[in-house]
Amino acid sequence: MINKLVLATKNAGKAREFRELLQDLGVEIETLLDFPGFNLPPETGSTFVDNALFKARLTASMTGLPALGDDSGLEVDFLEGAPGVYSARFAGEPTDDRRNNAKLLQLMEGVPWERRTARFRCVLALVTEDGDTHLAEGTLEGLIATEPRGHQGFGYDPLFYLPEYDLTLAELGGEVKNKLSHRARAVKKMWPILRRLWPAK
Question: Which of 71, 96, 97, 130 is catalytic?
Fold first, then answer.
């Protein structure tokens, strides 16, 4: 097995989180920023699974290396699961976290606290250089806050409130977030497969 794994993303925030989550794997972690001539086409899948598989398969094919693709997003119950797979481009292109958060707050204006339930969902797709495919999923339940709080994290983190901590994800800090986030939970489910491919030395 090649001692490298490519993350199918150019998102610096995602890459930082995944590097921390995978640091004990003992492999060299690269991202698409290490392949400047290669850009993923726009996502067209209707589910997180579709998009994660698409990114991982294309990245593995183009680089010849094992690839880990993820698709993740926010599902708000009051909005019938939106923004879902459109989380990154909720307020249109080019993607912009601040505009996405502003749009979400506008749509949730006046919605009572008990109806502001939501979850982050992450689907991971691992594709080896031989084309073998593995999937894992993680979720994190919470509520949509009435205003942004905190300056850590990215995306919808300032609006994602965790009642058990009385904090948003953007207030928690990376160390705690990386133990309970939807990505952390997906990586934990994928870990036995990763460890089988890259046994501990």
Answer: 71
